[in-house]
Amino acid sequence: MESVRIKTNTPRSYYADEDQTAEMFSLVDATISELEHALSAGWITSVDLVARYLRRISMYDAAGLNLSAIPILNPAVFDEAAASDARRAAGLPARPLEGIPYLVKDSIKVKGMTVASGSPAFENLVATEDAACVQVLREAGAVLLGRTNMPAMAYGGMQRGSYGRAESPYNQEYLTAAYASGSSNGSATATTANFCAFSLGSETVSSGRSPASNNSIIAYTPSKGLLPLRGVWPLYPTCDVLVPHTRTMSDLFRVLDVLAVVDKTPVGDFWNEQKIVPLPSVETIRPRLFDELKEGSALRGKRIGVPSMYIGGKDPLPDKVCTRPSVLKLWERTKDALEACGATVVEVDFPMVTTYEAKASLGELVSVKDLPEGWHSVERCQLVAHSWDDFLAANGQPGLDSLACVDPETIFPLAPGSLRGAPDAANQLRWHEMVEYPKNKPDSIFEIPNIEQAIKALENARKETFEQWMDSQGLDVVVFPANGDIGCANADVDLEASLYAWKNGVKYSNGNREIRHLGIPTVSVPMGVMEDTNMPINLTFAGKAYEDTKLLRYAYAFEEFTHYRQVPPRVPKLDSDVVRTTGNQQSSSVQAQVELPGVTITEQSKFIKDSIVYVEVKGNLQCSHDAQLKQLVCYINGELIDPRLDGNGWSLTATYPVSARDSTWSRWTSPALVQTIVVIVAHTNTGQTAGKLLSGSLSHRRSKMDVQDSHTLLYLLAYIRNESYHILNHCQNLFVQVLFLQLFQRKEWHPANGSRNR
């Protein structure tokens, strides 16, 4: 079988325009507003936008650098993009995030996809409904690309979960998140690497802030109850928050316009379900549009406190904060910038931290006045077990609708060869007790003994040790470097690296457990890149609960003045990231006047012979009398392949040496690393994009000489809807059909498929 490569009459990339005089913009670090403008102007379609992001994912995440940020792609991604493009073509008003591709953490429910939360125990758990956050994003027109990597149950940071972990796109020698708390590592890595427009993570200790800092992106951790948590796997319900990850504050505002809404059925959303302490409604906190917070002078005249312990100054606690000199150097530049914005910066103590951690050296990790005796232990067992059991019951999957169904050894196993590290003994979850808990649990989580006293104590601790202290110091906001240093990438297997990764200032984001436990809102903004490690670090803005809009104003003003974000150097711009901005406008009124084309897949196969992989896809093209095929462009794993045309038929044949990518998926690694992504783009000369394709039957052939695993499937994941394929609108007066084909090895089931019933 002949291997066909690029011919001289085929452009280097379908996406890159050969006219060097044409006006263009790049998808790399494009803002949501820029993407929306490109979609509205007809320069690009959502389908095309998805295809371009998929090429970056193919080149850098699932191959090449193997960043492993996105282990599972959404099988319906092109259906969602098609629906968005169809709305535009029909002349319907664009919704707030119309056609914008995004990602979600693996702990967030998407109907029909697995929601393993990175845990072997839940690899087969399929979401029966969307999480509240996914629901509102779907209604706003956003297009889900897939799911991001995380450690099992978000219980940690850079421990390898079922699908491995994400790696740094800045420096492969360092972690992309804090080792002890950075579970949204895939979300932040994917966002900074421009694999999506934005992503959703979550945080219980520093799981949203930490990876944001290590990846030079924005993270917002809201006050309790402001962003909906229904359908997100809980960890510690008293601490959990949803965390949007974006590359700019402006992007964050666009996302918050959609996310910051009241969930009328907040089942499993602890703070929105509880009636023990009154909380403000998000409707009374948020502005009508978050763009109203764009005030470049917001820091003028403000008094800013920076805790001495985080900038190498006085630290009264025995466990001193470890701060790298290059972090301190960035802080000095940042202080100058804040003062240039018109603020006064003063060094302060930090009683919220020193009070909370006063007895930590004695093994008492939480020191909060009036907190019930033993409450920390309850939060690490009964509270978690109750919330997990409720989550499973609400999902209602037979055989996996209770925590009692689960083998405790499979919830958080360490990957082979991994060190346990140096976690606090009192901070450990008790897996065996937890799976027994449902047998005698009360009807409601709010019936757990002493929960009312505990919630009131935590609320009072924030008010007394933080908010009243801010008033006494005359502070408008508190800022500090997001972390003192970053652990090495081998912290999971090397003892010396592990010990350093567990140091104070390195293991968590600064502020440690108390920021989330007491409910302090923060915004994390890029502060620069350390000169000795080439790793980014952020500045944290922290303020009073439910004064989130003030923090957002301050963070925007700082970002607007500094622009300290740097694009990760390991994932440079591709030719397909370039979008031409002239001569592409489409008239939706024309689209209804032309018979729409179709592409039929007639055969697909992949097999291995003599250490060579053979991939073949065949199909037919049907065009109206007004339309002619202009070009068929195909990519395999991001590399351009030349197809063969024969009248209305076409075939794609490619060969390449067998590699680890063609092996069977094994736990602790991303399933994407053993997938082959094929993108086929058909152009006609009329610019109309709709049509029907029948799903081709699976074909797998094995040579007698083949000793490889023969359980290979070819999945057509793009444009699939009820066994048919739909061609979507493309902007450049061309018909476009993008068929996203996933070929992967499997035995009984492969987690990359996203669900067991697909």
UniProtKB/TrEMBL annotation:
Transmembrane segments: none
InterPro entries reported for this sequence: Amidase_dom (IPR023631), AS_sf (IPR036928)
UniProt domain Amidase: residue ranges: 48-358
PANTHER family associated with the record: AMIDASE, AMIDASE FAMILY PROTEIN
The name this protein goes by in its record: Amidase signature domain-containing protein
Organism, scientific name: Aspergillus transmontanensis
Lineage of the species this protein comes from: Eukaryota, Fungi, Dikarya, Ascomycota, Pezizomycotina
